[in-house]
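Today's session is about reading a structure prediction critically. Students often jump straight to the picture, but the first step is always the sequence itself: look for stretches that repeat, for charged clusters, for runs of hydrophobic residues. Only then move on to the predicted structure, which in these notes is written as discrete structure tokens rather than atom positions. Here is the chain we will use throughout the hour.
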Amino acid sequence: MNWLTNKVLPKFRQLTTKQDTPDNLWIKCPECGQMLFHSDLEANQNVCSHCQHHMRIGPTERFNNLFDEAKFDLIELPEVPADPLKFRDSKKYTERLKEARNKTGNRDAMSVAHGKISGNPAVIAVQNFNFMGGSLGLAVGEAIVAASKLAILQKAPLILFSSAGGARMQEGILSLMQMPRTTVAIQRLKESRLPFIVVLTDPTTGGVTASYAMLGDIQISEPGALICFAGPRVIEETIREQLPEGFQRAEFLLEHGMLDMVVHRKDLKETLARLVDLVTQRKKKPEPASAKKTKKKPEPKETATKETAKPGEADKSPEDPAKAEKNLKAAE
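Below is the predicted structure for this chain, in token form.
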């Protein structure tokens, strides 16, 4: 029995036991339902290769995709009160913050970094929808103000990626106060004659749409992004009418003049680099002195003066009519 128990049975158990496989090897596309291998999806920047659906990505992926050689520096954002209103629903607000931080690895819903895009300095702020729906609160407001100050200090454009469900209800009126506060920060950027480019991603709604997300000098969106204040379901229930297909999507807003362009994620870096190059009007290096050609000044045209006029012409003057008549009578 010892031989059977110690050698044979363990081998049978090893053959019949199912091997554990990671849960994230295959990812299902929420739009078309196609199963996608995780490495292929990451190589395609989290865009479905079958239906081109743009899945949500976090700040780290954005920074790696946009900055040259994936080199960037995260800035330390100011600390804010964790739970100023001592808010509690089914859970304490502090517990929800702790869960979101453990899930995403970020302190809050906005991350800011600076680096170079095709050689041009740039400051990029990215909103993370996975952190409590990317909601606008004290921390996000401080992040946008800090990003604006950094862009002014570096004389660089500010590129903001928005993705949020609106203002954070756990912070009440304090979250709503961030709407005018971020608007002032963007206005200071514009007074410094620096470009503010907004890339709206899925979804951008509520107080975020009503404030800084619509203040860009250039408004860009990813394909299929939901961009609105109130969602289509709320509107349909209110007006009791069926909304047109694609209502409040990026392509619909582009058609109606709310956006400047809709850009695929794989073309986003090239588009942003071209725009930054254009709006900052990067100066070209001066040409060497040997290459410059001196232009001859045109000679002034000669005008008839007393010096250049023919002899005798300068002394001639029209005779007075009264004097001529008197001389005629005297001659008679």
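Discussion point for the tutorial: The chain has twelve helices and nine strands.
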